[in-house]
Specification:
The strands form nine sheets. Strands 5, 6, 9, 10, 11, 12, 28, 29, 30 and 33 form a ten-stranded antiparallel β-sheet that branches. Strands 13, 17, 18, 22, 23, 26 and 27 form a seven-stranded mixed β-sheet that branches. A hairpin with a 4-residue loop joins strand 28 and strand 29. With about 425 residues, this protein is mainly β. The protein is built from two helices and 35 strands. Helix content is about 15%, strand content about 45%.
Length: about 425
């Protein structure tokens, strides 16, 4: 009897809509889950039979079925964070993480440094990236490991001393100008200029000494003393070394030797910058004002330890060190898929590739079709709560209607049984 079939037709509606309600509940439950991507139920009809031979106007269905679940990878909203390793992807792509046995893919960018110094997701997987050495990123994708990262020292190669030497001072007046420099092992030393006012008008004599090592040569020769002379405008006009005036103003190379000093470093060769195009650069002056040191610029620095991190739009993680330097450390690897809706959900905001998704396309942010990476930011769930409530109401009504089909059919069957009375 056809009425019996309608009972099972109603059951298909109950089954399908109950599963749809489960999907809606999953979306709503994850409305605050970072990087979560909502899903949508897809229904299809169940074809039963053709009542009249070959007639397209006599086709009879027998209900509905949940054909599948489609995941939406629409962009979620962003939320600011105080943690530099909270990352969000603006555009297409996934972070690549590894749990020790294989790669997984996620949009949830809540990362932290673990006790091994590796950048780890909250669920334990390690973020993958390309290590940067001397400004060049490796082609190999590996764990992002920041353990033991430090800034190597850089020996000073040039310095500029800014000072005014009072030309109205009486002969014999002294003044000191210490210059901070760094050698090849990052050890700090003070190169001290001891100025003494000469009896010659507008002239100051100087000697050089180093707090570590010894000044071995100045301008390529053993050094004993020097002098600077200013013109009537107070500008540096000439420099003499060991009693011999230089032909023109130019950078003066100074070498400090560390032979016999512990710890031993390579000889420090540093240029004293006093001129531009053969004329004074205006840093050493001889005005009638109190002698003073007003600036000192040099390009060396000591070793530094990591004190902070920052991430640029192309996914480059660079370190901030306590010696004032920054250094590119890693570039975050990204992956994308031709059919991301075919990815397999693994829980904990992780996805795995499948035959339906295709193989991962690896790259880096802001290249090809990949989006950019935003530091100190998290991508929120893309679930639209209002839309989910509307869908829930529709699903509830469909479920109730399917239940009414069953109860109505039951009443009809009862009436049929009562025909024999």
């Amino acid at each position: 009897m056809a009425l019996i079939s309608s009972l099972f037709t109603g059951v298909t509606g109950l089954n399908g809509n109950s599963k749809a309600m489960n999907i809606i509940g999953d979306n709503i439950a994850n409305v605050n889950t970072i990087g979560f991507k909502g899903s949508k139920a897809v229904f299809s009809d169940i074809f039963s039979t053709i009542l009249t031979n070959g007639s397209v106007t006599s086709q009879l269905g027998r209900g509905s079925q949940l054909q599948g679940v489609i995941q939406s990878f629409n962009q979620g909203s962003f939320e600011s964070s105080s943690n530099a390793l909270d990352l969000a992807i603006d555009g297409s792509g996934f972070f690549v993480v590894n749990n020790g046995s294989g790669n997984f893919y996620t949009r949830a960018g809540q990362f932290r440094l673990n006790d091994d110094g590796k950048v780890q997701a909250i669920t334990g997987e390690i973020l993958q990236g390309h290590q940067i050495t001397n400004g060049t990123a490796s082609s190999t994708v590996t764990d992002i490991d920041l353990a033991g990262v430090q800034s190597a020292p850089q020996a000073s190669t040039a310095f500029t001393l800014g000072a005014n030497l009072d030309t109205s001072a009486s002969a014999g007046t002294t003044f000191n100008s210490p210059v901070t420099l760094y050698n090849s092992i990052g050890d700090q030393l003070l190169l001290n200029y001891q100025w003494t006012k000469s009896a010659t008008a507008n002239q100051w004599n100087f000697t050089l000494s180093s707090s570590k090592g010894t000044v071995s040569t100045v301008n390529g020769a053993a050094f004993t003393s020097g002098s600077v002379t200013f013109n009537t405008s107070g500008a540096l006009s000439s420099v003499a070394l060991n009693g011999t005036a230089l032909g023109s103003l130019a950078d003066i190379p100074i070498v400090v030797s560390f032979a016999g000093v512990s710890p031993t470093a390579a000889d420090l060769s540093v240029n004293w910058d006093i001129a531009t195009s053969g004329a004074s650069n205006g840093k050493i002056t001889g005005f009638s004002a109190d002698s003073n040191n007003n600036s000192m610029v040099q390009d060396g620095f000591t070793t530094g330890t990591l004190v902070g991190l920052s991430v640029t739009g192309d996914g480059t993680i660079f370190g901030l060190f306590n010696n004032g330097q920054t250094e590119d450390l890693y570039q975050i690897a990204m992956a994308d898929f031709l059919a991301p809706s075919g990815l397999t959900r693994k829980g904990s905001n992780l996805f795995a590739e499948s035959a339906q998704s295709g193989q991962p396309i690896l790259g880096t942010a802001e290249t090809g079709g990949f989006g950019s990476i935003i530091g100190n930011t998290l991508e929120l769930s893309n679930v639209d709560l209002a839309a989910e409530f509307v869908t829930m109401i529709q699903t509830q009504q469909a479920f109730q209607a399917s239940a009414r089909v069953i109860s109505t059919t039951d009443n009809l069957l009862t009436e049929t049984v009562n025909l024999v009375r």
